[in-house]
């Protein structure tokens, strides 16, 4: 005789189809393939960009870098330096690319110093568009810039003209996350005023920075509270340090001053821990989605419109060359030309869909 427990289990198995395991299949496949992320850091020399990146990923990315002399900096222009490394944590592989911009804003005349940065971002979009349009679409390497940390000087009282011009140039091409560098040089009330001033000027100049997505209704209250704290931190006031200090028998990373110790990972001292949480733990995938769904799609639409426009012009030119009296276009030719334009328009729409 069948027991009631076995009967219930049998009934549950009869009603079980199996597609509930799809998330597990996707998880296994994604973890096996690994992830990639490209981070760009932009700001003038001396704001601690390299130190902050080393602090974020707990490694020394710039151990072989030589510091240029004052004479070398005078005629130096903005360079693009890219470093790629593979990181693994608990079986999850990350291909991290850090794009540095030494020389940005270091000249007396900083006009057009943002052009190499803007060109690099566009070049990565162009290369991805070519790879996506090619035959081998399965193994595309994504080198698009997913996030740009823009370092603001703590000595300025708001945005400088260079800050405004750079962000307006690239805010429709990359996710900008503004950070106030070396915030340990400011008092807490000064940091608060500077944050308010920066946000006010960003809104005044209609600059689009990265916006945190709204929480879903089914999220727990703790997650919503944490997400709200991250939103309130923008722009992040950060401190970078790779020096390990002993504080009451506890090892911490920080900076030692005659009046005390500033701890890098202490949320009461700076926003570094919140920036790292946002960038790596909670919003890395959303930064990639914004790059794919918004910034790259805008670039892709412009490319397709440009190609379609060139094709239509070439078709009209060919018809003009083949027709001896082009001015006397028949009604049939006019209708055919309108149909050609409609077909081109629908092709653009279908390409955007797929």
Quick structural gist:
By secondary structure, this protein is an alpha/beta fold.
Q: Can you tell me the residue ranges where pLDDT is under 50 for at least 5 consecutive residues?
A: none
Instruction: Tell how many strands the DSSP assignment holds.
Output: 9
Elements, N to C (H/E)? HHEHHEEHEHEHHEEEEHHH
Could you give a short account of the major beta sheet? 6 strands, mixed
Strand content: 15-25%
Summed up, the helix count is: 11
CA gyration radius, whole angstroms: 27 Å
Which whole number gives the mean pLDDT?
80
What's the shape?
globular
Q: Which strand order spans the largest sheet, edge to edge or round the barrel?
A: 2-3-1-4-5-6
In whole angstroms, how far apart are the ends?
57 Å
Features:
alpha/beta; 3-stranded antiparallel beta sheet; 11 helices; 6-stranded mixed beta sheet; 354 residues
Could you please describe the fold and organization of this structure?
This protein has 354 residues and is α/β, with parallel strands linked by helices. It is 48% helix and 16% strand. The protein has helices at residues 4-15, 22-33, 49-57, 70-74, 115-133, 161-170, 188-204, 221-233, 272-282, 284-322, 331-353; strands at residues 35-42, 81-89, 92-100, 147-152, 176-180, 236-237, 244-247, 250-257, 260-263. A six-stranded mixed beta sheet has the order 2-3-1-4-5-6, sandwiched between helices. Helix 6 links the parallel strand 4 and strand 5.
